[in-house]
Specification:
Length: 167
């Protein structure tokens, strides 16, 4: 009986150790996901906001331009966290983006390079892009016939009104 009890105790102890290690394995994967997502968000920001920093090859806003250069530095750190080496195509794409930022390239070129690098990161690190397609007024509720949306609104109103009648 004592051998059976100690065997169960050992089994519970081993199971506890395995379960205690499971969150550690999951947590170890999380920094990679976080670094990839952060890099992609930074790239999205650069793609959109650079146009306010530089116009026609001249700095339009010193603070915005400094922020763009700072983000490029943060991107280097995120790529290092992801294990991207200097000879990696993603690192070369970042170097191209960085060169465009320092050369005060046109906004469409910087945006194109930032989006291409973001797409490369999404693909390599399996980061989904949300929404999968751009919102469209043609697919929205506003494109539905007015009679449908007015009727739906009236039904919703009636269902919340205490007397179930319109005022």
């Amino acid at each position: 009986m004592a051998a059976g009890r100690s065997g169960r105790t050992l089994g519970f102890l081993c199971a506890g150790l395995v379960l205690a290690g499971a969150p550690t394995v999951a947590a170890a994967a999380a920094p990679t996901d976080e670094a990839a997502q952060r890099a992609i968000h930074l790239l999205d920001y650069v793609a959109v906001d650079y146009a306010g920093a530089v116009r026609d090859g001249a700095i339009a806003s010193e603070s915005e331009y400094a922020e763009q250069l700072e983000f490029a530095g943060q991107l280097r750190v995120q790529l290092e966290r992801l294990g991207v080496g200097a000879d990696d195509p993603l690192a070369r794409s970042l170097a191209d983006l960085d060169a465009a930022l320092h050369a005060r390239a046109p906004a469409d070129q910087v945006a194109s390079r930032a989006r291409a690098l973001g797409a490369g990161l999404r693909e390599r690190f399996h980061v989904p892009s949300l929404p999968p397609r751009a919102p469209s007024i043609e697919r929205s509720i506003f494109a539905m016939p007015c009679s449908w949306s007015s009727e739906t609104a009236a039904l919703a109103w009636r269902s919340t009104w205490p007397t179930n009648r319109l005022p």
